[in-house]
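quick one: magnesium ion bound model?
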Amino acid sequence: MDRYRIEPGKKFKLEDYSPNDTGDFEGKKQKGIELLAERRAEIDSLQELLYAEHKHRLLVVFQAMDGGGKDGTIRAVFDGVNPQGVKVASFKAPSQTELDHDYLWRIHAQTPGKGEIVVFNRSHYEDVLVVRVHNLVPKDVWKKRYDHINAFEHELYDEGTTILKFFLNISKDEQKERFMERLDMPEKRWKFNEGDLEERKLWPLYMEAFEEAISKTSTKWAPWYVVPANRNWYRNLVVSTVIADTLKSLNMKYPNPEIDVTGLKKRLTNE
Ligand code: AMP
Ligand code: MG
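yep, here:
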């Protein structure tokens, strides 16, 4: 899945990444779904281990256009994990109190503690995406934010947080289909916002904003993955594989406290 990781410092072009790509799984959807089940099970046991070891922190960031599948991915990938150690933080338009602070204030407050996984459904990247597209702050203000973000994420990394960032890349046509479905299905209609159609008109501006954000903030310590997201099953497979592989690479171990197991068992038997 390394092919979807954006190399730091290299100019990255979204047009080189097809939302329809299914990599080595072209025509092998069934195999992909089976593998997804395996990855999920791996994530479940690795998350237990992360929690037990109480040493590492994992931050997973999701960004996408509306309908890109942020909610669905989070549900599919973290399906079986122990909710005690996993938290989802969703970032909406900032409140007045949040706006009274710097834009990273509300973000830092939600970052994971030791043993925890925190999933960001939207993030500080909104402050160089929607904020840029809608001129919510002047250009000379948002321009500086790429550097802030890199410094902020570097600090988290230096202090023991592993960071993964996923852009769920759908096509504009796919968004249209998903919006249609949302309108057609009563159990999905609540997700539809009239404002979503206005945002859709700004698609090219959003793509420019994503391209620049990803180019400038894909770093060694906090890489971006551009995930082909037109097919849900492949999107889920890519994300879960990256997360499982990353957790494995931490070489975690269950704590092995030095206790007198035989003695303790004897006491329990004889009580
Ligand atoms: P949803 O995720 O569909 O519930 O929508 C949340 C909305 O909040 C989206 O329209 C985001 O663009 C918006 N949002 C999130 N963060 C910010 C931010 N920092 N500034 C302005 N709007 C934001
Ligand atoms: Mg929405």
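The CA atoms of residues 59 and 163 lie 5 Å apart.
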